[in-house]
Amino acid sequence: MHRPAYPRWMKCVEDTGDFFEPTLAALFVHEAFSPSTQSAAMDLFTAIKDALITRLRRIPWMDEETQKKAQDRVTQLQVKMGGPEWAMDPALARQEYSDVHLGPNFLQSFLSGIRSRQSRIVQSSLRPFPQLRWQVAPWGVNAYYSIADHMLVFPAGLLQPPFFHPDYPRAVNFGAAGSIMARELLHIFDQLLLPGGCPACDTHALKEALLCLEHHYAAFPLYGVTSFNSSHTVLENAADIGGLAIALQAYNKMLLWHRGETTLPKLGLTPQQLFFRSYAQVMCRELITQDSQDTHSPPVLRVHGPLSNIPAFARHFYCPRGALLNPSKRCQLW
User: Fold this and answer.
1) Which one of the listed residues 240, 261, 286, 294 is annotated catalytic?
2) Is 18 a catalytic residue?
3) What CATH number should be reported for the domain holding residue 154?
4) Over the stretch 297-308, which tens digit does the pLDDT of each residue have?
5) 21, 96, 184, 236: which is the annotated catalytic residue?
6) What is the per-residue pLDDT for 5?
7) pTM here?
8) Which terminus, N or C, of the chain has the lesser number of Cβ atoms within 10 Å?
């Protein structure tokens, strides 16, 4: 008997999530994102944000005025975690799906759900500020930066194991969730990296840094990837490399303030090794196909590219000089 490629139960779960997201959002956030988890996640984000602000003061290709404006943009940023505020209000949530009618069979329930969802999309587009609605479900794992709102969103699904947990060693949280937070913060400044995006900056130094980044990624062999176009991934590569460097800077500062660090003895890793391994584990995944329009590099490059650009990684893992993960030249963009 041929086994379906897409299980029926998965479709049912996804359809339920699509049709009843307002009420499921509150249930998921209340169950999986406690106030203590949110507080710990916000503390982590604050440490990452402070590290970025410090780093912005010594970006070589930025002029002093641009550095000041960049610091102000980070300071003025809105941050949302967990789920949308409106979804946490039971009355408002019920209104969102009051027009969904279940039964007497799956087809009629499905069609009712489709009509309700389409109606919500239309109503959302007609509201004065439709961009205020979250672009991801609370159980999703994709953080994003909203240019219109100057707001970073971290759904509750991202702030769960294996990305984050209040009881994890700090090395794990900084290496995994911390690097993701730093990467999303850097997307605030994507415009500066584009041609003509920063007229007052040292454009020669910026171009040199971006060219270095391109050569850095080109040094890694790719197997089984035929449609990869490095020109589409520059901004994401820059955010990946900068995000890891900022997370490491924040982690090292934390170690100065907190004596002692929890380790995982069965792994036999030092705290610094655990930091880098945590980053690699959340970035590494199996590559099935690489969309030619994907703005991210293949997973292997998202692991090797940033790790090899950090001298501390080679030092803590004893990589021989000249190896792929310990090159003689590194790039300094962020």
Assistant:
1) 240
2) no
3) 3.40.390.10
4) 989 999 999 999
5) 184
6) 65
7) 0.86
8) N
